[in-house]
Amino acid sequence: xxxxxxxxxxxxxxxxxxxxxxxxxxxxxxxxxxxxxxxxxxxxxxxxxxxxxxxxxxxxxxxxxxxxxxxxxxxxxxxxxxxxxxxxxxxxxxxxxxxxxxxxxxxxxxxxxxxxxxxxxxxxxxxxxxxxxxxxxxxxxxxxxxxxxxxxxxxxxxxxxxxxxxxxxxxxxxxxxxxxxxxxxxxxxxxxxxxxxxxxxxxxxxxxxxxxxxxxxxxxxxxxxxxxxxxxxxxxxxxxxxxxxxxxxxxxxxxxxxxxxxxxxxxxxxxxxxxxxxxxxxxxxxxxxxxxxxxxxxxxxxxxxxxxxxxxxxxxxxxxxxxxxxxxxxxxxxxxxxxxxxxxxxxxxxxxxxxxxxxxxxxxxxxxxxxxxxxxxxxxxxxxxxxxxxxxxxxxxxxxxxxxxxxxxxxxxxxxxxxxxxxxxxxxxxx
RNA sequence: UCCUCGGUAGCUCAAUUGGCAGAGCAAGCGGCUGUUAACCGCUGGGUUGCAGGUUCAAGUCCUGCCCGGGGAGCCA
Length: 431
Description:
Layout: E1 16-28, E2 32-38, E3 43-49, H1 50-62, E4 69-78, E5 86-97, H2 111-114, H3 118-121, H4 125-147, E6 151-152, E7 158-160, E8 171-174, E9 177-181, H5 186-196, E10 198-206, E11 219-228, H6 232-261, H7 266-270, E12 278-280, H8 281-290, H9 303-310, E13 317-320, E14 333-334, E15 337-341, E16 343-348, E17 353-361, H10 365-374, H11 383-390, E18 396-402, H12 403-411
Parallel strand pairs: 3-5, 6-10, 12-13
Antiparallel strand pairs: 1-2, 1-4, 2-3, 4-5, 7-9, 8-9, 10-11, 11-18, 13-16, 14-15, 16-17, 17-18
The structure holds one RNA strand of 76 nucleotides.
């Protein structure tokens, strides 16, 4: 007798197996009962007949409640009527842990009800599917970047003093001093790039913004690659190749989950092939005005502007050369047009907004010093960062890719809070 | 911080002009030999977010407060 996983049950047809898992659903009549068992890898229908089990065991089977943990034994057979194509004819079963009044019934629930029960909600089919895709997205990112010669060098989570103003930073007490949770590994990545060439960090970022939209979390994950001796063009190519690879890998591994459980239009993902269309900021302004939007040159795009623009294309698009004022102090200005920075955002299709932000960093010490001054930033905490321009400055560029926003786009989730196991929101930190 | 929508049974929601607070699901009991969020019958289940006000009468109208959803700003 073997104990395979439900995902691999097809290799055990006509054999006797024992499975352990949880009761997802149970239904039946006086003579026969159908129990849907899930074990984390999949689900299988287990069939128990009164004639096979006897009165007492059959009654016990009927008494099993939703999400009780059980051990079941029986013969596996192919069955077209069963969900998944296989079923298990029960010969015996045992209750391991009872579950009384499981709160999340197989019906509709609102977010206000589900979020405080996230620890249980994870067991649901859609949540299980989304987080499975997330794991594949993360693995694909590591695989792609390492294959491209990037070294994984992580940035710290605790950071000293205020870097870009304290309003959006979480402050923590650090042995009598103040420290802040990292908003980005960007600056540290630049130091790492000077040491290792091509690097990336992967970890959580924290924003204390009081934003409560479906695109925001207070704790989110991002991957940030940074390349030495690379320009804006290199960054654009890296970003589109990475996204193409990730989309293809997710389709390869989870086509069934996407089309079935998540009801995602997979044709939209098949269209994600490089190169992506490129739109210069000037052109974006023209396109927005053409679409009837009142947009002034110089500012960042609003969520609605991004949606209007991305709806004009069938795949992600590069929006590049933002005005210097609209971007961070370390962005390099375009030598051909100093009003614009060598920056790029990638907007996901279907109006899902920004998933990538990046570009070429300035390698000019004097310009960087002037920028710090202009942005009213303190000099002292940036001395180490200025050192990178003092000791062998080098052109370099990179970007940050938001994991939850990417997963939301790929899986077709409306809200990114479903795209992280335990979302941290302005009004929700439990469980 | 601002704008906007909402809070009624365990869950999802209804309740006409201010006039007996309801349905489906869940739960409990019963029925059914292949179910697909199974189905059929019966039963139990309410401080209508909180406080006050108007009225013969308030889920409904008025005032204040609390909590939440969505959006803006900001960003990944």
